[in-house]
Specification:
This protein has 302 residues and is α+β, with helices and mostly antiparallel strands. It has ten helices and ten strands. It comes from Flavisolibacter tropicus.
């Protein structure tokens, strides 16, 4: 029996990392871009047509910052799929839910009503932390979310905050942890309708298509490109995951960093500048005939 279980685990692992071919040309271009970065960086790119990839520290574990909200989304969708929550069910806000900051939900008054669907929108669109912690609790807390991630074959992606037994991980990585490859793979699975159910995946895609924070990687894409994304930033970490569909292009990429020397919050932050360069390079690489470049005066709106 033990041998069978080990064999199954090996087969499962093999299927998850199915022999991927490296795009050597693109790998070299990205390695040149990231080589002087002052911090630890990981990049994973996958062309969804050819399945060719780029791996730069793609299996290294990084803090997720707000990208942990995608696993939280999966946890809530699982509850909805099981009939334990309803997408539009009314919820009652309590002052005890407040997470101090600029969040919209945190401006609510005690006993105000809001639909679950709107709380989910706030979590994904404006990265509302009060909404996110509320949803994490409704999803069955980090423990249940991590069980779902484990069942999907993810070994690096976990919720740490407010999750019993993960105190040491929280101390090291904060709210959540993942790797560029796993976070990009989670987006790919959602895109292919493989997370929870086809209907749940469709709804998650719609939520991931409304990102308010569009001034870094998204800013390097034409406004008519189809983009599903989530980003996250805290202290010395800057992360972003995008799944992009153009006229011909169809690719997913994740950039994660930690121990960044530049921890500034302006648009010239080193990690954000690098992220823009990578995003622009990828778009021009996969959609070479688009002839689109960001407007020269776009910085006025950043």
């Amino acid at each position: 029996m033990k041998r069978i279980l080990v064999l199954c685990a090996l087969v499962s692992s093999h299927l998850f990392v199915t022999a991927q071919k490296v795009d050597k040309k693109l790998q070299q271009q990205l390695e040149v871009l990231v080589k002087d970065f002052k911090g630890d960086i990981g990049v994973y790119v996958k062309d969804l047509h050819s399945n060719k990839v780029v791996n730069i520290n793609a299996d290294t574990v990084f803090p997720t910052a707000s990208m942990v909200k995608v696993p939280i989304l999966v946890g809530v969708m699982d509850k909805i799929n099981r009939g334990e929550l309803q997408y539009h069910q009314p919820l009652t806000y309590r002052d005890s839910l407040l997470y101090e900051g600029e969040d919209i939900l945190g401006s609510f008054k005690q006993d105000e009503k809001i639909q679950l669907s709107k709380v989910m929108m706030l979590m994904l669109t404006t990265s509302d932390n009060t909404a996110s912690l509320w949803l994490q609790s409704l999803a069955g807390k980090g423990t249940r979310i991590n069980e779902i991630l484990d069942s999907m074959g993810f070994v690096n992606t976990r919720v740490n905050s407010r999750t019993p037994g993960r105190e040491a991980n929280r101390s090291q990585y904060g709210w959540g942890q993942s790797s560029p490859k796993e976070m990009a793979s989670l987006f790919e699975k959602i895109y292919k309708g493989e997370v929870i159910s086809n209907a749940a995946s469709d709804k998650m895609l719609r939520l991931l298509n409304r990102n308010y924070y569009d001034e870094v990687a998204i800013s390097q894409l034409p406004p008519n490109a189809l983009v599903y994304s989530k980003n996250g930033a805290v202290n010395q970490t800057r992360n972003e995951t995008l799944l992009v569909k153009g006229n011909k292009a169809e690719y997913v990429f994740c950039i994660m960093s930690k121990n960044n020397q530049d921890s500034s919050w302006n648009n010239e932050n080193e990690a954000w500048v690098l992220t823009r360069k990578i995003s622009q390079l990828l778009w021009n690489y996969y959609e070479p005939k688009s002839k689109w470049t960001p407007a020269v005066d776009a910085s006025k709106f950043d």
